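Why do we care about 3D structure at all? Because function follows from shape, and shape follows, mostly, from sequence. That is the central idea of this module. The next example makes it concrete: a single protein chain, its amino acid sequence, and then its structure expressed as tokens.
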Amino acid sequence: MMDSHIHTSGDTICAISTAPGVGGIAVARVSGENAIEVVQRIWRGKPLDKMKSHTAHLGTLLDSHGEPLDQAVITLFLAPASFTGENVVELGVHGSLFVQRELLNALMGAGARLAEHGEFTRRAFVAKKIDLAQAEAVADVIASNSRAAHRIAMNQMRGGYSKKLSMLRDKLLELASLLELELDFSEEEVEFASRQHLLELAQAVHSEVTSLHGSFAHGAALKQGIPVAIVGATNAGKSSLLNALLGDDRAIVSDIHGTTRDVVEDTLEIGDYLFRFMDTAGLRSTTDTIEQIGITRSLKAIANASIVLLVIDPADESVAETYSRVAEEMMQSQAKLITLVNKSDLNPEQKLEFIPQTVTQIAISCVTMQGLDTLRQQLSDTAKEISGNNTADILVTNARHAEILQHATQSSSRIIGGLTAGLSGDFIAQDVRETIHHLGAITGTITTTDILTTIFSRFCIGK
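And the structure:
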């Protein structure tokens, strides 16, 4: 179960919840049993203690000297129907830095204290309004930088991921209870469930856990930006392509072979997805030590990419050799390959016969921009394919969860091994309990103070 020392102090906390800086509006949040009483001390308007929950009211806020500070709109959320499960008051004021600072001073003078990082969300977790996976998803929603990343985080925050874990936990509990009955009645001719049924339960859990763990690579890519390696021979037009996609001279373009010596990275949102483009050093044989280092990094970029854009100059005599080298590097990779036949403004559009029909070919020109819209659409389609083609699919995006799921994969595999080998139920039950423990660590059913402190310290103060 959750660590018994995890609790809130019960005092009233306050913070600015909007982004730091000047804006048209700033929102302060106050939470705690005495939140309404604290705000009432600096409020001139309708008596807040007589107002209903989920109502908004216009009035005046006073500063710490009792002078009018700002006209404000206050919204009330009475316990337990609030984010934190406590009384919550949100104060909308003008976004002046002075007003924000003085408002916090006035609230602290009235009996509140400044919230710690993530303390509002932590209180929601302690009040069982959300579990730990949902709490972490709150931070992901705030940090989301594309529609796809936002969609995944929202699904997790709403409990889709937690429901999946709860279903797995229920199956494990069923398995554990059947094993316990098997042990209790081992000397009697009573069979509550066959070993085959137990094995099917264990295999179903193991398959689901393995699938969740395996989704982390794609989930992390969608969250941080899908890595796209732009590769090819020297002077094929890789840097020109990056600049054309970004609409900026991000990479140096030159007729001199080997100009790009290191990986140049930048991000771009296309459709629902954020892409992290990596312009790499040209692939060729060279005795230049520095260029060789750059080529090694190019090969590493291929290995780490989810999508590889192979830029080809059809007039290059070594084009088939370059393709073969890239294809060989990708043999152990699950990355998607897209070949771009560049300089279509100089050469007639053509299909290169040595490239398999299963590999997408797009004719482009970084001068006339021909084919770039087709490329953008192909990138978006490929990203959708990578993410599972289904917006409801659950993808793991959190490194902490991925590590825990890896342990759960191993322990659930041992359950299958024990059942297959005919081991005694008490040995198998130990692995069942361990798997339940791992899944509980994701949602916070089983966790420690140190883990919670680390997680919530990454939140902004107002959340």
